[in-house]
Design brief:
Blueprint (H helix, E strand, L loop, with lengths): L17 E5 L3 H7 L4 H22 L3 E8 L7 H24 L3 E5 L7 H14 L6 E8 L1 H17 L10 H5 L12 E4 L18 E4 L9 H11 L10 H7 L2
Parallel strand pairs: 1-2, 1-5, 2-4, 3-4, 5-6
Helix pairs in contact: 1-2, 2-3, 2-7, 3-4
């Protein structure tokens, strides 16, 4: 029998509803093992499987994985080509398993730069899993947080031009309704692997009040038990959202 995750839930605490992960360290893992860089990305797919399984086991509602940033196009052309091929292969290979386990796949980002073939594979995978009611798996591909805010602003401007909105209507709530993932809870916890401690243009609007957890593990070495450690750390945090500790105590009374 596969080992199950054991979490200690303090009174009044619950697992994060939404977890976001910056999957870092694939290239360093490959160098460490004297392999080509793409081998690290392939090894990282196993970590994705394990973490998705862990989220489903622990009752997490949504998981967002930073797979390919809008800045990653600057990487060597051969690596980018391999990543696109790996993405297409993983979509075909994994989507039926996701569907079997009631997981809904959602790809976010500027998909227009992908090949028509890859765009069709993405649409087909999303359509297959659209009716599933379990974990929502968001894959951020050709995604950038600044791009996300700009595209939201453009949508609002277009609504103004159509007479559906007025500039004076704009506030955080209105702009937020155009931001990606606006129909999901904001990420409670952001995890970054490989020892780096920066956000790298990932969900910068959505993670205004997220808790952060930095792991020294390279992504291919991270699994659902590493995820459980991150969640256990999260459960020790006091989330105040701008309030004082005393106010939080009153709210939770």
């Amino acid at each position: 029998m596969p080992e199950k995750i054991q979490l200690h839930l303090p009174d009044g605490k619950s697992v994060p509803r939404h977890i976001a992960i910056i999957m870092d360290g694939n290239n360093r893992w490959a160098k460490k093992h004297n392999k080509a860089s793409l081998s690290g990305h392939k090894a990282g797919v196993s970590s994705v499987r394990s973490v998705v399984e862990g989220c489903a086991e622990m009752g997490v509602e949504a998981l967002t994985l930073f797979a390919f940033s809008s800045e990653n196009w600057q990487r060597p052309a051969l690596e980018v080509k391999g990543l696109m091929e790996l993405f297409a292969f993983a979509l075909e290979r994994e989507v039926k398993k996701l569907h079997k386990h009631n997981i809904r796949l959602h790809v976010i980002g500027d998909k227009g730069r992908f090949s028509q073939s890859l765009q069709k594979k993405i649409a087909k995978a999303e359509q297959l899993t659209a009716g599933n009611s379990g974990l929502i798996l968001n894959i951020a591909a050709n995604y950038g947080g600044q791009w996300d805010i700009v595209q939201a602003a453009k949508q609002f401007a277009e609504a103004c031009l159509r007479g559906e909105a007025k500039p004076e209507d704009l506030n955080e709530e209105v702009l937020g309704s155009y931001i990606t993932l606006n129909d999901q809870p904001a990420p409670d916890l952001c995890i970054r692997t490989a020892g780096e401690q920066r956000i790298s243009n990932f969900l910068i609007w959505q993670m205004a009040y997220s808790e952060y957890y930095f792991s020294d593990l390279l992504w291919p070495d991270f699994d659902k038990f590493s995820l459980a450690e991150a969640i256990q750390s999260y459960l020790t945090r006091e989330r105040r959202f701008g309030k004082t500790s005393e106010q939080i105590g009153v709210d939770n009374a």
